[in-house]
Design brief:
Number of domains: 2
Largest sheet: 8 strands, antiparallel
Strand order of the largest sheet: 1-2-3-16-15-17-13-14
Number of strands: 20
Radius of gyration: 38 Å
Number of helices: 7
Helix content: 25-40%
Strand content: 15-25%
Order of helices and strands: HHHEEEEHEEEEEEEHEEEHEEHEEEE
Length: about 350
Protein backbone atom coordinates (compact mmCIF):
# COMPACT_ATOMS: atom_id res chain seq x y z
CA UNK A 1 0.00 0.00 0.00
CA UNK A 2 1.33 3.44 -0.90
CA UNK A 3 1.67 5.75 2.08
CA UNK A 4 0.67 9.38 1.67
CA UNK A 5 3.20 11.83 3.03
CA UNK A 6 1.73 14.19 5.64
CA UNK A 7 2.45 17.84 4.91
CA UNK A 8 2.31 20.09 7.93
CA UNK A 9 0.35 23.35 7.63
CA UNK A 10 3.52 25.33 8.23
CA UNK A 11 4.84 24.00 4.94
CA UNK A 12 2.04 25.63 2.94
CA UNK A 13 2.69 28.94 1.33
CA UNK A 14 0.72 31.67 3.12
CA UNK A 15 0.05 33.53 -0.10
CA UNK A 16 -1.43 30.38 -1.60
CA UNK A 17 -3.73 29.93 1.41
CA UNK A 18 -4.97 33.50 1.16
CA UNK A 19 -5.69 33.02 -2.51
CA UNK A 20 -7.71 29.81 -2.25
CA UNK A 21 -9.57 30.44 1.05
CA UNK A 22 -12.51 32.30 -0.59
CA UNK A 23 -12.89 29.57 -3.18
CA UNK A 24 -13.10 26.88 -0.50
CA UNK A 25 -15.94 28.80 1.13
CA UNK A 26 -17.62 29.26 -2.24
CA UNK A 27 -17.47 25.54 -3.02
CA UNK A 28 -18.82 24.69 0.44
CA UNK A 29 -21.76 27.04 0.03
CA UNK A 30 -22.59 25.67 -3.41
CA UNK A 31 -22.50 22.15 -2.02
CA UNK A 32 -24.91 23.15 0.75
CA UNK A 33 -27.33 24.62 -1.77
CA UNK A 34 -27.22 21.75 -4.22
CA UNK A 35 -27.27 19.11 -1.53
CA UNK A 36 -29.09 20.23 1.60
CA UNK A 37 -28.84 18.16 4.72
CA UNK A 38 -30.98 15.04 4.75
CA UNK A 39 -33.99 15.50 6.90
CA UNK A 40 -36.46 12.92 8.03
CA UNK A 41 -40.12 13.34 7.06
CA UNK A 42 -40.95 14.12 10.60
CA UNK A 43 -38.44 16.97 10.80
CA UNK A 44 -39.29 18.36 7.36
CA UNK A 45 -42.88 18.88 8.36
CA UNK A 46 -41.87 21.56 10.84
CA UNK A 47 -39.68 23.69 8.50
CA UNK A 48 -41.75 26.41 6.86
CA UNK A 49 -40.97 27.40 3.26
CA UNK A 50 -40.47 31.01 4.28
CA UNK A 51 -37.59 29.93 6.52
CA UNK A 52 -35.92 28.09 3.64
CA UNK A 53 -36.24 31.18 1.44
CA UNK A 54 -34.69 33.34 4.10
CA UNK A 55 -31.79 30.93 4.53
CA UNK A 56 -31.25 30.81 0.77
CA UNK A 57 -31.19 34.59 0.62
CA UNK A 58 -28.58 34.71 3.39
CA UNK A 59 -26.47 32.08 1.62
CA UNK A 60 -26.69 33.96 -1.70
CA UNK A 61 -25.65 37.17 0.05
CA UNK A 62 -22.69 35.34 1.56
CA UNK A 63 -21.81 33.92 -1.84
CA UNK A 64 -21.88 37.39 -3.36
CA UNK A 65 -19.62 38.64 -0.57
CA UNK A 66 -17.30 35.65 -1.06
CA UNK A 67 -17.11 36.42 -4.78
CA UNK A 68 -16.21 40.05 -4.07
CA UNK A 69 -13.60 38.92 -1.52
CA UNK A 70 -12.14 36.44 -4.03
CA UNK A 71 -11.85 39.15 -6.70
CA UNK A 72 -10.20 41.49 -4.22
CA UNK A 73 -7.80 38.74 -3.12
CA UNK A 74 -6.87 37.87 -6.71
CA UNK A 75 -6.32 41.55 -7.48
CA UNK A 76 -4.16 41.89 -4.36
CA UNK A 77 -2.09 38.85 -5.34
CA UNK A 78 -1.59 40.19 -8.87
CA UNK A 79 -0.44 43.54 -7.51
CA UNK A 80 1.92 41.83 -5.06
CA UNK A 81 3.38 39.63 -7.82
CA UNK A 82 3.84 42.65 -10.08
CA UNK A 83 5.53 44.58 -7.27
CA UNK A 84 7.78 41.58 -6.57
CA UNK A 85 8.80 41.40 -10.23
CA UNK A 86 9.52 45.13 -10.30
CA UNK A 87 11.55 44.90 -7.08
CA UNK A 88 13.53 41.91 -8.39
CA UNK A 89 14.27 43.74 -11.64
CA UNK A 90 15.37 46.84 -9.73
CA UNK A 91 17.67 44.84 -7.45
CA UNK A 92 19.17 43.07 -10.48
CA UNK A 93 19.82 46.42 -12.16
CA UNK A 94 21.45 47.76 -9.00
CA UNK A 95 23.69 44.68 -8.72
CA UNK A 96 24.73 44.88 -12.36
CA UNK A 97 25.49 48.57 -11.99
CA UNK A 98 27.52 47.92 -8.84
CA UNK A 99 29.50 45.16 -10.55
CA UNK A 100 30.11 47.37 -13.56
CA UNK A 101 31.26 50.26 -11.38
CA UNK A 102 33.53 47.97 -9.35
CA UNK A 103 35.19 46.70 -12.54
CA UNK A 104 35.73 50.16 -14.01
CA UNK A 105 39.03 50.97 -12.26
CA UNK A 106 40.48 47.66 -13.47
CA UNK A 107 39.24 48.28 -17.00
CA UNK A 108 40.59 51.83 -17.02
CA UNK A 109 43.99 50.66 -15.75
CA UNK A 110 44.13 47.86 -18.32
CA UNK A 111 43.31 50.27 -21.15
CA UNK A 112 46.06 52.58 -19.96
CA UNK A 113 48.79 49.93 -19.93
CA UNK A 114 47.54 48.31 -23.15
CA UNK A 115 47.59 51.65 -25.00
CA UNK A 116 51.36 51.78 -24.46
CA UNK A 117 51.79 48.42 -26.16
CA UNK A 118 49.70 49.15 -29.25
CA UNK A 119 47.38 46.72 -30.98
CA UNK A 120 47.75 43.00 -30.25
CA UNK A 121 48.65 40.83 -33.20
CA UNK A 122 47.31 37.70 -31.55
CA UNK A 123 45.02 36.94 -28.62
CA UNK A 124 44.14 33.89 -26.56
CA UNK A 125 41.20 34.17 -24.20
CA UNK A 126 39.60 31.50 -22.01
CA UNK A 127 38.06 31.15 -18.55
CA UNK A 128 41.56 30.58 -17.12
CA UNK A 129 43.81 32.98 -18.99
CA UNK A 130 44.05 35.91 -21.37
CA UNK A 131 47.15 36.35 -23.55
CA UNK A 132 47.85 39.29 -25.85
CA UNK A 133 50.86 39.30 -28.15
CA UNK A 134 52.44 42.56 -29.38
CA UNK A 135 55.37 43.50 -31.56
CA UNK A 136 57.98 45.85 -30.09
CA UNK A 137 60.41 47.75 -32.28
CA UNK A 138 61.81 50.94 -30.75
CA UNK A 139 64.53 51.15 -33.43
CA UNK A 140 67.63 49.76 -31.74
CA UNK A 141 66.15 46.31 -31.24
CA UNK A 142 62.98 44.40 -32.00
CA UNK A 143 61.05 41.55 -30.49
CA UNK A 144 57.75 40.71 -28.85
CA UNK A 145 55.76 41.54 -25.73
CA UNK A 146 53.28 39.06 -24.31
CA UNK A 147 50.80 40.37 -21.73
CA UNK A 148 49.24 37.63 -19.60
CA UNK A 149 46.29 37.81 -17.23
CA UNK A 150 46.02 34.72 -15.06
CA UNK A 151 42.33 34.33 -14.25
CA UNK A 152 43.24 31.07 -12.55
CA UNK A 153 46.67 30.70 -10.81
CA UNK A 154 46.94 27.13 -12.13
CA UNK A 155 47.02 28.50 -15.70
CA UNK A 156 50.80 28.97 -15.30
CA UNK A 157 53.38 26.38 -14.29
CA UNK A 158 56.99 25.40 -14.81
CA UNK A 159 58.51 22.37 -16.48
CA UNK A 160 61.80 20.82 -15.38
CA UNK A 161 63.97 18.55 -17.51
CA UNK A 162 62.43 16.28 -20.10
CA UNK A 163 60.04 13.38 -20.12
CA UNK A 164 62.93 11.10 -19.14
CA UNK A 165 62.92 12.82 -15.74
CA UNK A 166 66.63 12.23 -15.15
CA UNK A 167 68.69 15.01 -13.50
CA UNK A 168 70.30 17.29 -16.07
CA UNK A 169 67.85 16.40 -18.84
CA UNK A 170 66.67 19.19 -21.15
CA UNK A 171 64.14 19.97 -23.85
CA UNK A 172 63.17 22.88 -26.09
CA UNK A 173 60.37 25.25 -25.18
CA UNK A 174 58.30 23.85 -28.05
CA UNK A 175 58.74 20.32 -26.76
CA UNK A 176 57.83 21.38 -23.21
CA UNK A 177 54.71 23.18 -24.46
CA UNK A 178 53.66 20.17 -26.52
CA UNK A 179 54.39 17.61 -23.81
CA UNK A 180 52.37 19.43 -21.15
CA UNK A 181 49.55 20.58 -23.44
CA UNK A 182 50.26 24.29 -22.90
CA UNK A 183 49.17 27.11 -25.19
CA UNK A 184 52.34 29.18 -24.67
CA UNK A 185 55.78 28.96 -23.13
CA UNK A 186 59.08 30.77 -22.60
CA UNK A 187 62.50 29.70 -21.41
CA UNK A 188 63.05 30.27 -17.69
CA UNK A 189 66.13 30.11 -15.46
CA UNK A 190 69.81 29.76 -16.24
CA UNK A 191 71.78 26.53 -16.23
CA UNK A 192 75.23 25.05 -15.74
CA UNK A 193 76.67 22.24 -17.86
CA UNK A 194 78.36 19.37 -16.07
CA UNK A 195 78.02 15.82 -14.76
CA UNK A 196 76.73 14.65 -18.09
CA UNK A 197 73.84 17.07 -18.23
CA UNK A 198 72.56 20.63 -18.15
CA UNK A 199 71.43 21.50 -14.63
CA UNK A 200 69.26 24.42 -13.45
CA UNK A 201 71.24 27.20 -11.86
CA UNK A 202 71.08 27.74 -8.08
CA UNK A 203 67.71 27.73 -6.25
CA UNK A 204 65.00 25.97 -8.24
CA UNK A 205 61.56 25.24 -6.77
CA UNK A 206 59.42 22.59 -8.44
CA UNK A 207 56.42 20.53 -7.33
CA UNK A 208 56.54 21.78 -3.77
CA UNK A 209 60.23 21.30 -3.05
CA UNK A 210 63.70 22.70 -3.67
CA UNK A 211 65.25 20.65 -6.46
CA UNK A 212 68.83 20.83 -5.16
CA UNK A 213 68.09 22.42 -1.81
CA UNK A 214 67.88 26.12 -1.04
CA UNK A 215 70.98 28.10 -2.02
CA UNK A 216 71.44 31.66 -0.69
CA UNK A 217 71.70 34.29 -3.42
CA UNK A 218 75.24 34.92 -4.64
CA UNK A 219 76.91 36.76 -7.53
CA UNK A 220 73.78 38.85 -8.11
CA UNK A 221 71.66 35.79 -8.85
CA UNK A 222 67.95 36.21 -8.15
CA UNK A 223 65.03 33.85 -7.86
CA UNK A 224 61.82 34.41 -9.83
CA UNK A 225 58.63 32.37 -9.71
CA UNK A 226 54.96 32.34 -8.79
CA UNK A 227 53.17 32.07 -5.48
CA UNK A 228 50.20 29.80 -4.86
CA UNK A 229 47.93 32.83 -5.10
CA UNK A 230 49.15 33.57 -8.65
CA UNK A 231 51.46 36.49 -7.90
CA UNK A 232 54.92 36.95 -9.40
CA UNK A 233 57.57 36.72 -6.67
CA UNK A 234 61.30 37.23 -6.88
CA UNK A 235 64.49 38.87 -5.73
CA UNK A 236 67.54 37.92 -3.73
CA UNK A 237 67.00 35.53 -0.84
CA UNK A 238 69.66 34.79 1.74
CA UNK A 239 67.45 32.70 4.03
CA UNK A 240 65.08 29.94 3.02
CA UNK A 241 62.48 31.19 5.47
CA UNK A 242 62.28 34.50 3.57
CA UNK A 243 61.40 32.68 0.37
CA UNK A 244 59.13 30.16 2.09
CA UNK A 245 57.15 33.06 3.52
CA UNK A 246 56.11 34.00 -0.05
CA UNK A 247 54.56 30.55 -0.52
CA UNK A 248 56.19 29.65 -3.88
CA UNK A 249 54.64 27.06 -6.15
CA UNK A 250 57.51 27.08 -8.67
CA UNK A 251 60.49 29.20 -9.67
CA UNK A 252 63.98 29.35 -11.17
CA UNK A 253 67.10 31.52 -10.93
CA UNK A 254 69.03 33.93 -13.15
CA UNK A 255 70.43 37.46 -13.08
CA UNK A 256 69.79 40.38 -12.64
CA UNK A 257 66.73 42.06 -11.11
CA UNK A 258 65.69 44.98 -13.35
CA UNK A 259 62.80 46.59 -11.44
CA UNK A 260 61.56 46.22 -7.91
CA UNK A 261 58.55 48.00 -6.41
CA UNK A 262 58.48 50.32 -9.42
CA UNK A 263 62.11 51.44 -9.12
CA UNK A 264 65.08 50.65 -11.35
CA UNK A 265 67.73 48.52 -9.70
CA UNK A 266 71.47 48.81 -10.29
CA UNK A 267 72.52 46.48 -13.07
CA UNK A 268 75.87 44.82 -12.26
CA UNK A 269 78.69 46.12 -14.45
CA UNK A 270 79.40 42.64 -15.81
CA UNK A 271 75.89 42.37 -17.17
CA UNK A 272 76.08 45.80 -18.74
CA UNK A 273 78.89 44.74 -21.04
CA UNK A 274 79.14 40.96 -21.30
CA UNK A 275 77.36 40.85 -23.61
CA UNK A 276 76.21 44.41 -24.13
CA UNK A 277 73.50 43.45 -26.59
CA UNK A 278 71.85 40.08 -26.82
CA UNK A 279 68.60 38.26 -27.38
CA UNK A 280 66.76 38.52 -24.04
CA UNK A 281 63.83 37.05 -22.15
CA UNK A 282 62.41 39.20 -19.35
CA UNK A 283 59.37 38.68 -17.12
CA UNK A 284 57.63 41.35 -15.05
CA UNK A 285 54.31 42.21 -13.45
CA UNK A 286 51.94 45.16 -13.28
CA UNK A 287 50.35 46.38 -10.07
CA UNK A 288 47.20 44.40 -10.88
CA UNK A 289 49.33 41.22 -11.12
CA UNK A 290 49.11 40.89 -14.89
CA UNK A 291 52.38 39.63 -16.36
CA UNK A 292 54.44 41.16 -19.14
CA UNK A 293 57.06 39.11 -20.96
CA UNK A 294 59.55 40.64 -23.37
CA UNK A 295 61.51 38.47 -25.80
CA UNK A 296 63.97 40.36 -28.00
CA UNK A 297 65.81 38.99 -31.00
CA UNK A 298 69.43 39.07 -32.12
CA UNK A 299 71.52 37.16 -34.64
CA UNK A 300 74.18 35.93 -32.21
CA UNK A 301 75.52 36.26 -28.68
CA UNK A 302 78.59 38.40 -29.49
CA UNK A 303 77.08 41.57 -28.11
CA UNK A 304 76.34 43.39 -31.36
CA UNK A 305 72.66 42.56 -31.80
CA UNK A 306 69.63 42.43 -29.59
CA UNK A 307 68.86 44.70 -26.63
CA UNK A 308 70.84 45.94 -23.66
CA UNK A 309 69.51 45.32 -20.18
CA UNK A 310 69.35 49.09 -19.62
CA UNK A 311 67.13 49.48 -22.68
CA UNK A 312 64.76 46.80 -21.46
CA UNK A 313 64.80 48.26 -17.96
CA UNK A 314 63.78 51.66 -19.34
CA UNK A 315 61.18 50.09 -21.62
CA UNK A 316 59.56 48.16 -18.78
CA UNK A 317 59.52 51.25 -16.58
CA UNK A 318 57.74 53.27 -19.28
CA UNK A 319 55.23 50.47 -19.80
CA UNK A 320 54.24 50.69 -16.13
CA UNK A 321 55.77 47.41 -14.96
CA UNK A 322 56.42 47.20 -11.19
CA UNK A 323 58.82 44.25 -10.81
CA UNK A 324 60.95 42.70 -13.56
CA UNK A 325 63.55 39.96 -13.75
CA UNK A 326 65.95 38.96 -16.49
CA UNK A 327 65.74 35.29 -17.47
CA UNK A 328 68.23 33.29 -19.47
CA UNK A 329 68.91 34.91 -22.85
CA UNK A 330 71.13 34.51 -25.89
CA UNK A 331 70.37 31.30 -27.74
CA UNK A 332 68.04 30.25 -24.90
CA UNK A 333 65.58 33.09 -25.54
CA UNK A 334 62.38 31.56 -26.87
CA UNK A 335 58.67 32.32 -27.13
CA UNK A 336 56.13 29.75 -28.25
CA UNK A 337 52.45 30.54 -28.78
CA UNK A 338 49.64 28.54 -30.34
CA UNK A 339 51.95 25.79 -31.60
CA UNK A 340 54.60 27.93 -33.28
CA UNK A 341 57.89 29.59 -32.39
CA UNK A 342 57.21 33.34 -32.41
CA UNK A 343 60.76 34.71 -32.18
CA UNK A 344 63.83 33.85 -34.25
CA UNK A 345 66.29 31.97 -32.01
CA UNK A 346 69.86 33.18 -32.48
CA UNK A 347 71.11 29.59 -32.71
CA UNK A 348 68.92 29.08 -35.75
CA UNK A 349 66.77 26.64 -33.78
CA UNK A 350 65.47 26.34 -30.25
CA UNK A 351 68.05 25.50 -27.62
CA UNK A 352 67.22 22.69 -25.16
CA UNK A 353 67.26 24.02 -21.59
CA UNK A 354 66.23 22.63 -18.18
CA UNK A 355 63.37 24.97 -17.20
CA UNK A 356 60.44 26.62 -18.96
CA UNK A 357 57.49 28.72 -17.83
CA UNK A 358 54.27 27.41 -19.37
CA UNK A 359 50.79 28.89 -19.82
CA UNK A 360 47.52 26.96 -20.18
CA UNK A 361 44.06 27.74 -21.58
Amino acid sequence: MTRLRYIRPKQLNRTFMLAIAPFIGLLLCMWLITKPPHLSHETAEYIPSSSISEQSAVIMQELDQASVTAEQTISSIEKTAKLYQQTTASVGTILRTAESQAARPEQIYNRRITSKLGVPIETVNSDRIRIELYKINPGTYHGYAMKVKLKDPSAMSMSLGSESGRPGSVETTMRAVSRHGAVAGINAGGYADGNGGRHPLSTTFYKGKYVSGFQPSFKDLSFVGMSKSGKLIGGKFYNQSDLDRLDPVFGATFVPVLLQNGYKTTIPEKWRTAPRRAPRTVIGNYKDDQLLILVTEGYDEKGKSGATLQELQNKLKKLGVIDAYNLDGGGSASLVLNGRVVNKPSDGSLRPVPTHFLFFE
